[in-house]
Amino acid sequence: MDFTALKAQLDTLRDHAVTKLASVSDTKSLNEWRVAYLGKKSEVSGLAKQMGGLAPEERPKFGQLLNDVRQALEAEWEEKRNILERAEQNARLSAETIDITLPGRETQPGAYHPISRVIREIEDVFLGMGFMIADGPEVETDLYNFEMLNLPKDHPARDMQDTFYITDELLMRTHTSPMQVRTMQRMHPQVPVKVLVPGRVYRRDEDDATHSHAFTQIEGLVVDKNIRMSDLKGILEQFAKALFGENQRVRLRPSFFPFTEPSAEVDLVCVHCGGDGCRVCKETGWIEILGSGMVHPRVLDMAGYDSSIYSGFAFGMGAERIAMLKYGITDIRQLYQNDLRFLRQFTGA
């Protein structure tokens, strides 16, 4: 093949490529054009292979022409690509245009769940009295849940609490009282010990309007020298006034808990009738809110505190019980059903 014929093919190829490029209308076709005219197996590359048939003095001249054509086609391709990309971007932006005349979506304000609200209020009250907040494991050992709280394996009081056992020695805690022992062991020999422990507990109860198999208990513990029952009553009176009003009063009734001695149930004046007597308080004028008592000497000794020197009191209340009294809720199941119609009543409360 001579130089003139090969140059004529190159000129024809360039004109054909430019004409073809003018008809390209999308980036996919543009990439196909690039492969056809500038790729490794393109016609331009095919002409480069035919340079071997030219005279030695003609090869550099044809190589220069070939490079000029390749560079010209690449420039044409680059320009076409920019035009197509801008067009596609403009089309995409037009399709994604936001209609600013549409009304905005109303945001729904959130709020604390009534149980969380009550826990925070109770924590604030006791933090103000010098208590610290602690947390413990919900999966507990038999040792801490029962034995260290004066409930050995053969103790009949274990029947008071129907327990979810995982193994013989592992269970879902039935109360937050194990944190009494864990806190005393951790802090020993420091005094005073003043701790509040909110947390979930689990019992094999039938769910109804006043019972749940899983609920929130709030445990309180104070240990120091010369702690008396009067200190317990004073603390609980301050708590009741802070949550239910300055006119609130409490009374203590004798009771039994294995880990406190003496033990007492604590009542407050009925929040529904103000003490006059109604259906809710069964005409007594009082409503039970928690259990309490002086920490049993055996519990103190097992936790490392000498009961001949130190004494203490403990109390435990259900957060759901407090929430029901505070907000007039009659069915505990409403606190767990996540019904927005119910929960929205507490927005901004």
UniProtKB/TrEMBL annotation:
Biological classification of the source: Bacteria, Bacillati, Bacillota, Bacilli, Bacillales
Enzyme nomenclature, EC number: 6.1.1.20
PROSITE patterns hit by this protein: AA_TRNA_LIGASE_II (PS50862)
MF term (GO), any: phenylalanine-tRNA ligase activity
Subcellular location: Cytoplasm
Organism listed in the record: Alicyclobacillus dauci
Gene name in the database record: pheS
Chain coiled-coil ranges: none
Origin: domain of life: Bacteria
The protein, known as: Phenylalanine--tRNA ligase alpha subunit
Xref: NCBIfam families: pheS
InterPro entries: aa-tRNA-synth_II, aa-tRNA-synth_II/BPL/LPL, Phe-tRNA-synth_IIc_asu, Phe-tRNA_ligase_II_N, Phe_tRNA_ligase_alpha1_bac, Phenylalanyl-tRNA_Synthase, tRNA-bd_arm
Residue span, Aminoacyl-transfer RNA synthetases class-II family profile domain: 116-345
